[in-house]
Amino acid sequence: MKPQMSYDTPMTGLPGAPALQNLPLKEQLKRGFKDMGQRSYSTGKNFALVGSIFAGTECCIEGFRAKNDMYNGISAGCVTGGVLAAKAGPQAAAVGCAGFAAFSAAIDYYLRHMD
Q1: Strand ranges (DSSP E) for 7-50?
Q2: Cα dist. 94→40, 75, 78, 89, 106 in Å?
Q3: Averaged pLDDT of the chain
Q4: In 10 A of CB 21, how many CB atoms?
Q5: If I label 33, which of 16, 23, 78, 92 is the partner at 20 to 30 A Cα–Cα?
Q6: Where are the domains of the chain?
Q7: Measured between alpha carbons, how far is 109 from 115 in angstroms, rounded to an integer?
Q8: Helix or strand or coil: residue 113?
C-alpha cells in the first residue's frame, strides 16, 4: 500500500470523508473553486489592510511634512511594518519596520528614477 500524501487528504478535514481524488470531476472542481474563492477573499482582505495602513499613514505624513519625497513612503513603510508585526513583540515590530521601510524605499526609488 502506498503512503498517503498530504494532497490525498480530503479538503473537508472530516474523518472518514472521501478523498478528493475519489470524487467525481464536477465535485472536485466545485470544491476546488470554492476553496480558491475563500483563499482569494482572505488574501484580498489582507492586502486591503496593508494597503490602507500604508496609504493612510503616507498621506498623513505627507500632510504633516508638506513635502512629497521618498521619506514619506519610507516612514509609512516603517509604521506599517511595525504595526503589522506588533503582536509578535517589540523585536518583531522593529524587524517589520526595517523590512517594510527598505521595501518601500526600493520601490519608491525605482518608480522615481524610472525613465
Answers
A1: none
A2: 29, 13, 8, 9, 18
A3: 86
A4: 9
A5: 16
A6: 28-112
A7: 12
A8: coil
How many residues are recorded in the chain? 115
Residue 32: band (very low, low, confident or very high) from pLDDT cuts 50, 70, 90: confident
Q: How far is CA 115 from CA 42, 103, 105, 108, 110, in A?
A: 36, 20, 18, 14, 10
CA distance 48 to 98: 21
Cα torsion for 83, 86, 88, 90, to the nearest 10°?
A: 130
C-alpha cell at position 7: 494532497
- Grid cell 525613465 is found at 115
